[in-house]
Amino acid sequence: GRHVDMAALGRRWSSYCAPLASAAAALCAFSNAHDGELVFDDVYAIVQNPDVYPSTPCWALWSHDFWGFPLTSDLSHKSFRPLTTLSFRAHLLWAQGRLSDETAAAMHRANVFLHALNSALFARTCQVVLAMDVHQAALAGLLFAVHPVHAEAVAS
């Protein structure tokens, strides 16, 4: 017969505890952000930003700031976040160019999912790269998942 090393199996499963707990904490912490409309500066960053719309060439994202202004313009405050703008553009393409409360809710849900994934990856990185034990990595991952600094990026 085949012998199962229960200790090794337990260690293997315990390596998933910190990432799973971190992802679950992120999903719980931001569960109220799954629905909603565009708020705060979303109007400027998404609705009024020409780089979010397919009519603007994709290369413009690499020469414009977060708000859609050319980086060389006096109107630009030089905030350069092309991947964020690209994600807005992808959401809008998925929604077939329609910005609505439903599109906004889908954007919020995607942000919450991505934050949960990042929280899990952070906890796993703590285990593998920083050689933290399961408890240390879980604490670090949980803190990352629920820290208020992420509220604006995830929930709005």
Automatic annotation (TrEMBL):
Coiled coil: none annotated. Transmembrane segments: none annotated. One of its GO terms (molecular function) is mannosyltransferase activity. GO terms for cellular component: endoplasmic reticulum. Keywords: Repeat, TPR repeat. GO terms for biological process: endoplasmic reticulum unfolded protein response; protein O-linked glycosylation via mannose. This is Uncharacterized protein. It comes from Alexandrium monilatum.
